[in-house]
Design goal:
Layout: E1 4-9, H1 27-40, E2 48-51, H2 60-77, E3 81-84, H3 91-97, E4 110-114, E5 117-121, H4 136-146, E6 154-157, H5 168-171, H6 178-185, E7 190-195, E8 202-206, E9 209-213, E10 220-221, E11 230-232, E12 236-243, E13 246-253, E14 260-263
Helix pairs in contact: 1-2, 2-3, 4-6
Length: 264
Amino acid sequence: MEPIFFVHLTDIHLSKPGKTPLFGLVMADKLRNVCAEIGKLQPKPAFVVISGDLTHDGDLDDYKFLRSFLREQEMAIGIPIHVALGNHDFRGPFREGYLEETPSEESYYYSFMADGLRVAVLNTQVPGTHDGRIDEQQLAWLRDLLAVPAPRGTIVVHHHPVVPTPTAMMDSHLLQNPQDLARVLEGTDVIGLLSGHIHFHNIGQLAGFPCAAADGVAFGLDPSSAEVMRMVDRSGYNLGVVKNGQMVVQPMTMPGDQRVLGRV
């Protein structure tokens, strides 16, 4: 079988034009530059998936802008773009502005197929907080979905990562119930998990399943900073390939000056 190439983006933090730019950076320009690089990749990726924090403020107009912007990029690169929600996203404005549906607080999760590969997109939001958790309804849905194997296996996409980070401070941002997820995945056709939220590349395993968090598109975080959250002017993404029944991920970093944008 031919390999399946894909791109994993995360934490794009878009805002509608006219807002005061976060850190003085125009995030739409950053995403546009990343998409331009994706458009040059050969072989051409089958899809792009963005694992949450689609906007920074989560306003209705932000999601309307996000919709038009991503459609523009899809046409420019000729590759479908799929999205997940992160802790900076809000369900009602997202459903109305991006999906063009009646606004509701219903959780957003789904699956799609690409050349025989199944991608299950989960929602790890805990509304009103920055915490991450997969609720029982999604776990039951995922269990039913995985009961029937896909021809090329399944990749699970979610915002909050499950792999421990280099520092205890960043470990507080992990998914709160990874073992519940691991029990659902046991014995299934899942070949890997993709996440974001921490704004740096981080690779490890959950119960033997390979897991990869991607660098943020909007900005990066310094993973070696143990006591201070240091934001850095950096963009990156994961270039993935499914080959011989395995998910392989190559972290990619865009050119940048790596200057420190702020500290928390």
